[in-house]
Amino acid sequence: MTSKETVKRGENLPLKILPSATHIDILVASIAKHRAFNKRFDGKAEYRLVYKDGSEVKSIPGTSPPEPFTLNRYKEESGFGYARIIFYLLPTRDIFEELNDILTESPTSSITEIDSDPEGENLKPVEFMQQDKNAQVTHRESSHYVDCPICWAKFPIEVIGDHVHICAEGKEEFADPFSTAEDSPNEKGAIQGQGDLKEEIAKLATNVKEDEIRVTVRRKHLWWDFTRARNEYFCPTNTIKVTFCGEPAIDDGGPKREFFTEMLEYCETRLFPDGFPTESVLAVARDDFLTAGEVMAMSIVQGGPCPNFLAPEIYNVLSRSFLRSASEMELKDILLKDHVLDTLQRIGVPAKENKESIKRVVEAICMYDQTPAGSLSSLVKLEEGLKTYGLLKSIRGSPDMWRPVFVPGCEPSVTATTFLNELVVDFSLSDVKKQQEIDVFYHFTNFIQSLDSAGVGKTLKWAVGATTIPPLGLPKKISVQFLHGCTPGCKCRPTTSTFDLRITIHTHLDNEDDMNSIMASALGDSEGFGLI
User: Fold this and answer.
1) Coil vs helix vs strand at 88
2) Which residues form a coiled coil (predicted)?
3) CA–CA gap between residue 443 and residue 116 (Å, rounded)
4) Distance between CA atoms of 503 and 496, rounded to whole angstroms?
5) How buried is 499 (Cβ within 10 angstroms: 0-12 exposed, 13-18 middle, 19+ buried)?
6) 376-386 and 312-319 helices cross at what angle (nearest 10)?
7) What per-residue string of b and e applies to 140-162 under the rule 16 or more CB within 10 Å gives b?
8) Whose CA, among 279, 472, 476, 530, lies 20 to 30 Å from 379?
9) In a 3-state reduction of DSSP, which class is residue 72?
């Protein structure tokens, strides 16, 4: 053990664990126990499991070739009883010299050294006692289990973050994220990145059951009403029929689009306020992120708008769009960037890295640099919801094709031109009426052209029930019709039908001022069905 590494006395904790435990199992369990019972333990730091001499626990000492570590084999080779076996937790830091040794070809090159803690690293010993093979591990009733996104084993939320980092280190089957396109053929028949999005959504739609289930919701309690229906009688694989309580609407597409729009707005504001998952233990415990993933999948496949509010970093984690490098030199350039070095310093890298062994570095960067601390369990739940219809598998097979659906700014924005291109105008056969209708439609188009992107989105929602064009597109063009015969001075407002996509404009709106004021009033009071 070096002079800078000292044992912190009085903080050794006994640990019960199976004799077949690997060093990864012991490390995860040790960190979890110190977090639970050691108030002075730095739970945010990353740790290695080491012997008393400071060498990392990975193989059994004295074996040739080195034998992978298991607790029972270590007991046999060392001759120690389980109660006498002691390991230590060592904070992982100062990996710059290791990176410099492996990545710097010139002996004159160097990396700026970051000074270690002058007081030395504190080693926290963990003692071990044998656990009966038939013993059962019990957890509090409030403890929730989530799947590891690498090995898919279930772990409590409290330890999943530590497990993922360690699991990435030992998972040799994980696809090499630094392979080139030529080295990584699409052996599993994944969809190509430039494939047709509509065709792929149509393929996923074949997984939707034709059985239509009616879900009645209240606008003020939309999320809670749906989650209750989801828990009691509705399954996301069924076709959903939405009814807004107290509104005379028959769901022929419009209410469903508006329902998905409102639900996705809730997801964005409450669960992903800045594109990243909010760090809410309550939301994870209530399975809100699981529900959000299911709603996203349902909206995409059943004709709703895009859930395009995820941060690019979050989408990269969901789609496994990791970094790629074609050479050792390019790998060196990536790893020596300031922000990557900051991340590596924070998480620690226990071995010298090269192109063949860099998988754990990439996994650590993605999990710790691209996602805020505490959000991993939320993402695991979100992924579980996105598995609906096989959507998550499709996303990972073709991440570039799906990116505009989930990441803002990647899709074409809804502009006034986009909206007007969706209109089909039904003019009267009478020349007198047609001329009047032409003037009215002219003022209507000028009003649309004066709107900003938010205003266009609100107008689109007024007309079709969604603020953006759904990935599948609209079932048909929006019909514009005109109503004659209003009394002089009438202030009735244009009406819409999101069921058959129709806008009806009264012909008394034949000047710019009336059109602008009446349209502003119509958009401001348009929430709900049968209210205008």
Assistant:
1) strand
2) none
3) 70
4) 4
5) middle
6) 60
7) eeeebebebbbbeeebbbbbbbb
8) 472
9) helix
Three-state SS for 91? strand
Question: 520: which residues sit within 8 A by CB, 6+ positions away?
Answer: none
- Are 405 and 197 a contacting pair, CB within 8 Å? yes
Give every strand in the sheet of 495-497, ordered side by side: 423-425, 478-483, 502-506, 495-497
> Which two structure tokens, joined as six digits, stand for 196?
């047709």
Q: How many CB atoms lie within 10 A of CB 392?
A: 21
Element (H, E) at 188: none
- CA proximity to 180, closest of 401, 328, 319, 392: 328
**pTM for the full predicted model:** 0.53
List, as one string, the DSSP characters of 219-254.
GGGHHHHHHHHHHHT--TTEEEEEEETTS----SSH
Show the tokens assigned to 411: 């899709």
For every residue of 118-157, DSSP letters joined together read TT-EEEEEEEEEE--TT------TT--EEE-TTT--EEEH
The CA-based angle 57-339-102, given to 5 degrees, is 50
List the end-to-end C-alpha distance of the chain, in Å, as a whole number.
Answer: 79
Answer whether 18's CB lies under 8 Å from 70's CB.
no
Largest CA distance in the chain: 104
CA distance linking residue 475 with residue 499, whole number of Å: 10
DSSP 313-354: HHHHHHHT-----SSHHHHHHHHTSHHHHHHHHHH---S---
Q: Work out whether the CA dihedral 146, 149, 152, 156 comes out positive or negative.
A: negative
